[in-house]
Amino acid sequence: MxxxxxxxxxxxxxxxxxxxxxxxxxxxxxxxxxxxxxxAEGPSMVRTLTERGDRVFLDLKFHDIPNTVxxxxxxxxxxxxxxxxxxxxxxxxMMRAAREAAHETAATRNRPAPLVIAVTxxxxxxxxxxxxxxVVIDLMDHVLRLAExxxxxxxxxxxxxxxxxxxxxxxxxxxxxxxxxxxxxxxxAATKDDQERTMSPADAVAAGASYLVVxxxxxxxxxxxxxxxxxxxxxxxxxxxxxxxx
Length: 246
Ligand code: C5P
What we know:
Number of helices: 11
Structural class: alpha/beta
Bound molecules: cytidine-5'-monophosphate
């Protein structure tokens, strides 16, 4: 179950990120690199981790015309990332182009294609904020619609808040990856930081999460390895809907 834990390397520098990865390697399933670290330290940071055998989720949320997104995803696949994401709002053609680029690039390098997943509605968006953008349907309906669109485009899954996970799992079935941040409480630190709608690691997996993105409860702990281990242990007995088991 430790493979389900993806640690958000939300730190300033390459040195800090590599130190954390060295500490946590073997205790977790992979590392998430977001736009902050990527913009500061660049692709060599990603390549260093993939060359060390780490699974890297490159969280850059591409959203552009299909050709641009496809070439960006191809570049990510070239770095050897394990997972990359795009915005479902970019539409089916964009998502399909992303998937094809991931598979084509991986095939030319003789390695497995990265998982391509979609962001549905950013969890920072409220119903009112969504309405301002011209989307007047219920926020959860919009999330489910975009998740279904991602599935139709043959993407591998979506990023979802804990409170959306169960509905997406019910709608999209087993085998569709759901990556869930906002993990707090239970075996993870209870401090909410800036997260509002949180769920414990065990509850998130029971709701259908395939992977948990965990940042501060692990990287901010006095002993990050022990914190990760405690979370992994708490998942041991949870029914796993992501794999189709109950
Ligand atoms: O420290 P914490 O566990 O809150 O970190 C969660 C990570 O997941 C951060 O990198 C954050 O940007 C990301 N994330 C999130 N909520 C989303 C999407 C991504 O917290 N809806």
